[in-house]
Amino acid sequence: MCVKEEMFLKLIAITDDRHQVLELASKIMQIQNVVDFIHIREKKKSARELIRLLELLLDKGVPKDKIVFHDRLDAALLSGIRNIHLPGHGLPTKQVRAKFPFMRIGCSVHSFEEAKQSEEDGADYVLYGHVFETNSKAGLAPRGVKELEEIKKRLVIPVYAIGGITADRVDDIHVDGIAVMSGLFSAENPKAAAMYYLEKCKERTMIGEIL
Predict the structure, then answer these.
(1) Identified catalytic residue from 85, 89, 130, 174
(2) pTM for this model (two decimals)
(3) Which residues contact 29 (CB under 8 A, 6 or more apart)?
(4) What DSSP element (H or E) covers 107?
(5) Residue 110 known to be catalytic
(6) pLDDT tens for the 211 residues of the chain, in order
(7) Domains of the chain by range and CATH?
């Protein structure tokens, strides 16, 4: 007998590397109870600044298991964060998995082949993009949803989407979750924006069957 289970899309916040540490911490605090994960993607910040940001968040009660370090395995290991996201040009997934089996590892991918290889190498999830046009990828054609949906069909691990995903486009996403950057961190009211995204994610459910 099969029992149907409703699964809401995960909502992932990705920082945009445009704010000073204190301002960024404030924005994260506004949304931390709404989103499922917070990716610290701050390429311009020093390791010291990243650790300071993390200290501010932990002091305010942000759970460690919600925080993901983007490409900074050193900062993650030093601070006891078990979530690491590897960009396409980052450390090899297979080697990170072999050396640090306790880590939750995500990978940025841009094709089915990359996604499948990441799964085989030990990734816990993949993040595919950019799906729609976005200012952060100005001049680059979006990849659309066709290959994204094919990846979802053929992979076992969760598949998330990123790139130009406004709240009104959530209905077009048929995977496990969405990642949002400017839609949250450029919003005048990050919490209100996050709540609106969350509402759309809950409306856009996926139906799974449990044997």
Answers:
(1) 130
(2) 0.91
(3) 57, 60, 62
(4) strand 104-109
(5) no
(6) 344 445 689 999 999 999 999 999 999 999 999 999 999 999 999 999 999 999 999 999 999 999 999 999 999 999 999 999 999 999 999 999 999 999 999 999 999 999 999 999 999 999 999 899 877 666 677 788 999 999 999 999 999 999 999 999 999 999 999 999 999 999 999 999 999 999 999 987 654 433 4
(7) 3-210 (3.20.20.70)
